[in-house]
Structures are given as structure tokens and as C-alpha cells.
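Closing statement on the nicotinamide-adenine-dinucleotide sub-project.
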Amino acid sequence: MSTAASAADAPVSTDLISMDPATGQEVGRVPRTPIEAIPKLVFAAHQAQRGWGALTHAQRAEVLRPAAARLKAEARRLGELASREMGKPLAEAVGEANYCADGFAAELDEIVAALADAVREDKRVTSILRHAPLGVCAAITPWNFPILMPHQSVLPALVAGNSVLLKPSEETTLVACEYARILNEFLPPGVLTPVFGDGAQGRALVLADVNLIVFTGSRETGKRILGDAGPGLKRVILELGGKDPLVVLEDADLDAAAAFAVRNSFRNAGQVCVSTERIYVDARIRGEFLRKMVEKTQALRQGDPRAEGVNVGPMVNARQKAKVMGQIDAAIAAGASVLAGGESREGNFVAPTILADVDHRMEIMREETFGPVACVQAFQSDDEAVRLANDTPFGLGAAVFGRDLDRAGAVAARIEAGMVGINQGCGGADGCPWVGAKESGYGFHTGPEGHRQFAQVRVISRVK
Ligand code: NAD
């Protein structure tokens, strides 16, 4: 038999193989869920939901509560697995697992309180607002926070009384599988079912008989899901990509602003939905701000995510690296100046990069980069800063740095983003939702308002 014939005859592996982006080595593999099995899994999830949905919110929270200690005990192992699957520095990955474990009990309490009955009455009628289960939820998650994203989607869906099919990213299947295994030690059978695959399995889930789709991922995939969910009027929660601006006003504390810019542009190698990707700086302080940014960027250490002191890892895969390098190269060709990085490094690494002299004709200022790149453009007035910050279809997060809080607050109020931080990142206080405006979100989660989107509101009224 010829070599060509034997290669063609070899059985094609249907396994989903997880690769370490820092070393190129295999981390592990799981069998892909066959597409034709998905409607049957959804049917089984409907059956499991009947008993689960009959419990109260508080009873469901009690079933889940012991999982917190198990998650805490396994946080180190989960963090290591996440780091190996997607290249996040080990300390950050373990921190992500600990964050989920440490907040688990408070999260359950917040969900139960948010879904409690509410009474509304007038002179004639007393009404009770109930938060009933929707049915079966498809939770489809990305790879960049491979423990937190499943956690934030699955927990409120379960406490609300839904059964859940969790389809994690094909890049980080193993760690999501471990997260589901821990919850399944405590849940009744069939209430939480992992589904393994890529967009094909994700789409099959959306098209199956599910009642709620909770999706976190790119804007393009979000639009596809909305289209597929439309004919069945399925409920959707879409948390999508961003192109977050940072506005540095003339009176800003430049050390604080530059430290934030470097941290928030290069954390997780820029693979964060609320990464700072566009920086608008008052022309009068541009030089000093850039000097500070460059100095802090040079102090970063890029390399093996498991090595001590490394704070910037690789891109998740070669495709993502090619996309980031393509945007950098096109910007340089169009006149951008490179103040740091700008070059591709061996394997999947892209050097932390600062580009100045950019403008909105460049793709790098318009499309999500999702890499370690900070682009800096000068502005002449606060009005111009607001106009530039809003010149995008995205609207996830934003930040404004300035010492005069009235002025910074006035700029923040005019930025069309779901979350705006003043002299800080965009994350709000405990209990605030995680919410995107414009094309960065369609529905949202987290906090009492977010938790209620996992339930069907029902109004039961009687005459007094
Ligand atoms: P992606 O859109 O490529 O994939 C996300 C998930 O959707 C994966 O599980 C994938 O398999 C699945 N999928 C792909 N096509 C599908 C389809 N047609 N139907 C159903 N499912 C499908 O995104 P990604 O590369 O995994 O993640 C990065 C993106 O996620 C970035 O745009 C980032 O900004 C965004 N993100 C947003 C938030 C937020 O809170 N807004 C948080 C994290 C990441």
C-alpha cells in the first residue's frame, strides 16, 4: 500500500485536542459531542429540568453551596490547567479560580435575593411577581476567562431553575469540563451537561429546543446566534466584544493613568473584552504620558506563563497572532509610529506594543484587536475626546482619567459605553451588572438585574 493511500485511509480523530499555546504541546483531548446527539441531550435536559425546576431558588442554592469548598480546594489545579490551555500567566489563572470559589456563596445569596417574589399592589389588585425557570439554557462561552465565564453563565441559570448545556470554547474544553465536574458532584443527574466542540456544536445547540441562550464571545458570533435564535423567539443574553477607550485629560495623574493603560492593555496579553485598546490623550501632556507608558511597558516580562514573574503570555493560537500582527503591520504601513514592541516573537508571542500617530482610518482603531497593543492618539479638546471615544459600533467599557472629578465625570457621562470608570477600570461595585452598550451587548448578566434575565417573570394577580 502506498504512503498516500494509508494516510487517506487512517481514521480521522474526532477528538477535540487542547494545545498549550506557549509550548505547542498537547494538554489533553476529549471526544467531540456528535452533532446528531445534541437534540437528544437537550431532550434529556428538559426531563431533568422538571424536578430541578420544582425546587425553590433557596433549595437549589443549597444544593450548589458545597461546590464552593471543592472549587477552592481544586483552584490551584484548575488554574494550572487554564494556564496550559490558553497561556494566561499562572498567578492570574489561579486567581481566576479563587475568585470564583471565594465569591461563590455570596453569588448564590445574591441570585436567590434577586429572584425572590415581589409584591405590587394598588387599591384594587394585589400582584405577585414570580421569577420562574425558562427551561433549558445553552451556555456558550469563550476561552479568555475559561473558568469565570462558565461560572457567571451557569450559576444564575441553575439557581433560576433551568437545566444547562455548557458548550465551552474549543480552546479551553478541559478546564470547563473540570468546572462542570465539580458542580456535578452535587447536582442531580442531567441538570448540567457539558457539550464539547466548536462553532458547529454551538450552532446545533442554538438551533435545538433550548429556551435561553447565554453567550459570551465575539460580536460576529453574537450576530449569528441572534439570527439563529430569532425564528424561535428564544431568549438570548449576548455579552460581546469591545474596543474600549481610555481618555487621559490634561490634569490627570499621569503616573496613575500610564500604570492603568499598561496594565489594562497588556493583561492576559490583551485578550480581555475590556482591554484598553484606544487611548486618547490631551495633546499638551502626550509626550510625558507616552514616556511613562513606554518605561512601564519595558518593565514587563513576557515568556513562559508558568515562570515566576512573567506577566505577559502568548496569544491563544496562531490564528489570533496572525490577526493581531496583521493589524499592527497595516497600521505601521499607514504611518503609525512604534514606541514599544511592534514585532512578532517566536511561537504564538506578540511583543507588548505601543503605537502612536494612529487615526480612525486604521483597522486597529476600529476593529477589536484582542492582543497586547495600546494605540495612542492625541486630542485638542474634551469634545474631540468624546467624539473619538464614541466613533465605534462597540460600547463595552471605557475609562477617563482626570483630577477634576466634575470635568472627568462630565466626559464619562457622554461616553456611549455600558460601564465607564473614572480614574479606575470599568468594573462597578459589588451588585453592578456587567453590561455592554451598542454592539457590545444584547441583554447582560451579573448583579440582581442581570440574574433576573435568567428567569421568566410571571405576574399572578387577585382582587383584594
Ligand atoms: P467566539 O465568538 O469565536 O467564540 C465564542 C464561543 O462561541 C465558542 O464557544 C465558540 O465555539 C462558539 N461559537 C462559534 N460560532 C458559533 C455559532 N455560530 N453558534 C454558536 N456558538 C458558536 O469568541 P472567542 O474567540 O472564544 O472569545 C473572544 C471574544 O469574546 C472577544 O470578542 C471578546 O471581546 C469576547 N468576550 C466578551 C466578554 C464580555 O463580557 N462582553 C467577555 C469575554 C470575552
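Residues 244-430 form a domain with the Aldehyde Dehydrogenase; Chain A, domain 2 fold (CATH 3.40.309.10). With this model delivered, the sub-project is considered complete and its resources will be redirected to Aim 3.
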